[in-house]
Amino acid sequence: MNEMVIRWGILGCGDVTERKSGPALQKASGSQLVAVMRRDASKAQDYARRHNVPFWTNDADALINRPDVDIVYIATPPGAHLEVALKVCAAGKPCYVEKPMARSATESIVMDDAFRRAGLPLFVAFYRRGFDRFKVTKEFLDTGRLGTLTGIAYTYESPRQPDLNSGQLPWRLSAADAGAGLFYDLGSHLLDILDFLFGPLENVSGIAANRASEYDVEDTVAMSFTAMGVPAVARWNFAAFGNRDEIEIQGTQGKLTLSGIANEPLRLETSAGSEVFSCEPPPHVHQPLVQTIVNELRGLGKCPSTAATALRTMKVMDAVLASYYGGREDEFWKRVETWPGKPRVPASK
Predict the structure, then answer these.
(1) For residues 314 and 310, what is the distance between their CA atoms, to the nearest angstrom?
(2) Of 94, 117, 128, 250, which one's alpha carbon is 20 to 30 angstroms from that of 306?
(3) Which of 209, 262, 216 is nearest to 237 (CA)?
(4) Is the pLDDT score of 172 beyond 60?
(5) 3-29: per-residue pLDDT in tens?
(6) Chain-centre distance of CA 11, in angstroms?
(7) Which pLDDT value is given to residue 1?
(8) Cα–Cα distance between 132 and 22 in angstroms, integer?
(9) Residue 59 CB contacts under 8 Å (≥ 6 apart), including other chains
(10) pLDDT band at 344 (very low <50, low <70, confident <90, very high)
C-alpha cells in the first residue's frame, strides 16, 4: 500500500479556500495542507491559525520553494495565474490552479506548454467533474437511457449586479483580473461539464453583449455548438428579471433535466414515467477532485481535470467572446476603450 502523503501549499487563501477547497486538501486521504500564503500577512496568519496550518507567509516565492510543499494550489484571481504557475513550474512542482485556467486561451497555452516541457502535471479546479450528479448523468448517456440524442440546451439567468456606486469593481467583473465577466467565472464550469459529458464541443459560434450593466465586460452571452454531433445551444443572462439554471438533454426515448451550477435534483422522463434523483454535493466541493489529484501523484489513479481538458473550454469561451473584445490573443484587457462590444451609453435604470 502506498503510504506517501501529498503536502499542499495554497497561494491566495481567500474566500474560495475557506470551505470549498482548503478543508478538502486536509480531508482527502493521503493529503495534508502544510503552508498558506496571502499578500496580507495578518490574513494569512489568521487563516493558518483557524485551519491549523503550520506555516504561513505573505511571500509567494517562499511558499513555492519550501521543500515540504509537494504541490501548489493557486487560488488567486485568473489575472495572476500565468505568472505564478510559471514560478511553480520553474520550481519543479505540480500545480493545481483555480478555474478558469487563466485570462485567455493564449495564456493557458503558455502554461500548458511549460508544464508539458517540464514533465509536470498541471491540474485545473473544474471540481464538478467529481460530483455524483454529473457522474450519474454520464452513466445515463453512456448506457443509452435517453435513446439517440437529439438536442442539448442550457439556460442561465440571474439578476444584474448592483449599481457600482462605490466605484469598487469586484474582480469577477474586471477583465484584467478575471479575463472577462461572469461568463468566464460561471460559464467555464458549465462548458467544462458539457465537455465531460459529451466530449470536445465542436462548431462553436456565439455572441456577447452588455445590455444593461454599468461595468465594461459582457452581461449576456449566447452560443451554438455541436456535442457528439448533436446540435446544441447555450445562453447566459446576468441581467435578467429572475433566476434559472437548467440543462435539458433530449433523446428519442427520454429527457433529462438538471441544474448546471445549482443543486436541484435530476429529473428523468421516459415512457415509463418520471424519476427524480437527488445528488447532493459534498460539504467541501473540491474534495472528490482533490482526491483524484492526490491519487495520481501517489501512482494510484488519474485526475479527470487537466490542463488539456481545461484548455478546450478556454478555447470555446474565447471563440464566443472574440468579437466583443476585438480579439483575445493579446493583452485585450489593457485596451478596454476600443472593445467593439463595449457599451457606448450608460445602462438604463
Answers:
(1) 6
(2) 250
(3) 209
(4) yes
(5) 799 999 999 999 999 999 999 999 999
(6) 17
(7) 41
(8) 21
(9) 37
(10) low
Most distant pair of Cα atoms in the chain: their distance: 64
Q: What gap in Å lies between CA 104 and CA 232, rounded to an integer?
A: 24
Distance, in Å, from the CA atom of 311 to the CA atom of 123, rounded to the nearest integer, reads 11
55 DSSP β-pair partners: 35
**Backbone dihedral angles phi then psi of residue 98, each to the nearest 5 degrees:** -60, 160
Handedness of CA 251, 256, 257, 259 (dihedral sign): negative
DSSP of 69-118, one letter per residue? --EEEE-S-GGGHHHHHHHHHHTT--EEEPSSSSSSHHHHHHHHHHHHHH
Which of helix, strand or coil describes residue 5?
coil
pLDDT one-digit tens code per residue, 92-104: 999 999 999 999 9
The CA distances from residue 277 to 96, 193, 256, in Å, are 31, 18, 11
Cell of 11: 497561494
Whether 164 has a pLDDT exceeding 80, the answer reads no
- Over residues 112-153, the pLDDT tens digits come to 999 999 999 999 999 999 999 999 999 999 999 999 999 999
C-alpha cell at 80: 495572476
Give the C-alpha separation, 169 to 187, whole Å. Answer: 20
Shortest CA distance to 22 belongs to which of 11, 33, 38?
33
